[in-house]
Amino acid sequence: MNPEGMTALKTDSVQLEVLLPTAVGHGFDYLATAQMGLSEGDIVSVPFGRGDLLGVVWGAGVANIPASRMRNIGEHLSQFPPLSAPMRQFIDWAAWYNCAPKGAILKMTLPIDDIAKEGRKATQAHIETAINTDGIALAQLSDLQQQAASILVDKIGKGFSVNLLDGVTGSGKTEVYFDAIAHVLKQDKTSQILVMLPEIALSVQWLERFESRFCFKPLLWNSEIPPARKRASWQAIVKGDARVVIGARSALFLPYKHLSLIVADEEHDGSYKQEDGVIYHARDMAVARARFEKLPVILVSATPSLESYYNTKAGKYTEVPLADRHNGAVMPDIEMLDMRKVMIERGAFISTPLREKLAQAIASGHQAMLFLNRRGYAPLVLCRTCGHRFQCPECTAWMVLHKGRPRLECHHCGYRVPMPKACPSCQAEDNFAACGPGVERISEEVKAFLPQARVAVMASDSTSGYVELSETITAMTEKRIDLLIGTQMIAKGHHFADLAVVGVVDADLGLAGGDLRAAERTYQLLHQLSGRAGREQVRGRVYMQSFLPDHPVMKALVAGDRDTFLATELQARKNASMPPFSRLAALIIDGAKEEAVLQAAKKLAATAPSIAKLHVLGPAPAPLYMLRGKYRYRLLIKADRAINLPDVMRIWVESQSCPSAVRIKIDIDPQNFL
User: What fold does the segment set 583-668 form as a domain?
Assistant: First the structure.
């Protein structure tokens, strides 16, 4: 065994399997001379097609091909450490579990297309990696925080464990797991730590808090990093120079040299589910990687996912509770505004009582926040003359009106057109009705009744990139904004010390559609949002406009009774034999020709495996029946937890013969049903 734990290949082995970062489920065989001294996991450059690709030696070759027809490995990139055995095992497992090509998983590990060239020369981007662990400041933890931190610290260096840091909003969960990070950094000078956040918006204040505590900058990994910096960041990670990495879900698959701890903050968040390309859930993959690497993983949330909550009750995960807010702050009072009864002006969306509460907070020198999980100005535009509704030509979705630069946009595929002057059906001019509110329309309404207030909007399409997002959050922190209006981007993770009032324009929005997780997600989102208020000295109050004030979700929010809600939801899942008491998978069949898609879906249903305690529902048109110009049908599979669902799904799908224009996607553990 060499120092990296690799098994050296026999000196007479010249035929090697090299896994390439392509959407293929197997490696390709190449020839190598014994003098190259290659081992499993070594990163190499090989000819592929008309160019070169980066790849990884996966083992001895298996193809029965004459040596005269095989190509030679071009170069061993020995400046990079090989992929460890646990990392290769994780890639194999992740490909199996998610029914994905192994090469597609590797592409997330080796995401830099031209690193084979760039790896031979110094990069232009500067990555700050030096840290002084002696200078790490000690945090002032409360007794409860110290108890929680001690549980986490005790797990360090003792192999695999899953720990759910379950604390109310404002309890100081971040400072607690910072304590565990500090322990890892001080204990081992080569250790690396990954902290995953579900959204880029959450990293702004997190980075400030981290630098204040640790006096160095962690490496940030997300989709907005420029290519040169991304190459340098990858090299710092693979060489072990980057000690702490904060990133989105893709950061989980990077080839850390000495990974010692994984933290998944806001573990319940739906953004951890990757829906395009390789379909996977980053939280679940984090647990799997920790198991292969034999290290602890910390899941963090004020509103844990039902699956994680169940696993703590079943004894699979260690529960680390934080029941109280930090520094004596109290949870905000929540009041439901029954929209069947309260006063509201004609054409308005903010009720009179909520307007008064917002005005009072701002007049008192405090800040306020308004939440509506809907981007743009209006979700639907129709012609008053003929009733024509503007629908996306590529999707079964209405076009959303954006008023700044008047345009209609599909929020599913990105198709956009300028707002027309005349109706395309009846040619009537300037006679359109904007139906329903988006955050832009709420902003317009607020400015009408609070003309002196400093108002800002934070949504993914109104905040262009990390820099502008950071500026908005900083302005809110420094009280240069009186009232912040936003989508779910404002609902979690942010700490605004003087935020007194939070208003919810439409608390019922997430309950529509009959999704399995609708109640759970709505509770999580509204609870997290409520937790933004009253985090320090100012007393927080939350006002939710609802037409369903007697819904169990709304009652649980008002009562502050999270555990009863979760217990009730768990029992409902158990009664219906739904996750976490069973497992789900979905098959999504799509294509440009509806009849071909339908026939493929029917054939899949007709050839479904006959296994006890496995049920196939469908096919049925997906709620988003057309997406990006493709017709879509779905089958839902419910199986007993003892069934090897990935193998069943893979064998079933691989047995099909479909037209090349029809695509079948497997989604293990689906999180939404669109």
Answer: Alpha-Beta Plaits (3.30.70)
Q: How confident is the model at residue 129 (pLDDT cuts 50, 70, 90)?
A: low
Task: List b or e across 52-85, with b for residues whose CB sees 16 or more CB atoms inside 10 angstroms.
Answer: bbbbbbbbebeeeeeeeebeebbebbeebbbbbb
Asked whether the beta carbons of 481 and 347 are under 8 A apart, the reply is: no
Identify the bridge partners of residue 541 per DSSP, sorted by sequence position: 333, 501
| Average pLDDT estimate for 231-255 | 93
pLDDT-derived band at 14, boundaries 50, 70, 90: confident
Contacts of 28-35 with CB under 8 Å at 24 or more apart are: 28/55, 28/63, 29/61, 29/62, 29/63, 29/65, 29/70, 30/61, 30/70, 30/71, 30/72, 30/73, 31/67, 31/70, 31/71, 31/72, 31/73, 32/72, 32/73
Q: What pLDDT, in 10s, does the model give residues 136-157? A: 766 889 999 999 999 999 999 9
**What mean pLDDT is predicted for residues 34-62?**
91
Take residue 84 and report the two structure tokens written for it.
Answer: 């460890």
Is 15-118's fold the same as 133-326's?
A: no
Q: Which CATH superfamily is domain 329-375+438-573 in?
A: P-loop containing nucleotide triphosphate hydrolases (3.40.50.300)
Per-residue pLDDT at 135: 67
pLDDT on residue 467: 80
CATH top class, domain 133-326: alpha beta
pLDDT per residue as tens digits for the range 362-407 = 999 999 999 999 999 999 999 999 999 999 999 999 999 998 778 9
Strand ranges (DSSP E) for 540-602? 541-546, 583-591
Instruction: Confirm if 271 and 199 have CB atoms less than 8 A apart.
Output: yes
Calculate mean pLDDT across residues 643-652.
Answer: 96
User: Which of 347, 341, 355 shows the shortest CA–CA distance to 549?
Assistant: 341
- Three-state SS for 576? coil
CB 93 within 8 A of CB 58: no
The pTM of this model reads: 0.92
How far apart are alpha carbons 546 and 307 in whole angstroms?
Answer: 28
Name residue 583's beta-bridge partners. Answer: 639
Instruction: Domain ranges for the chain, please list them.
Output: 15-118, 133-326, 329-375+438-573, 379-435, 583-668
- pLDDT at residue 123 greater than cutoff 90: no
- For 460-518, what is the HEC assignment? CCCCCHHHHHHHHHHHHHCCCCCEEEECHHHCCCCCCCCEEEEEECCCCHHHCCCCCCH
Q: Between 3.40.190.10, 3.40.1440.60, 3.40.50.10540, 3.10.20.580, what CATH number should domain 15-118 receive? A: 3.40.1440.60
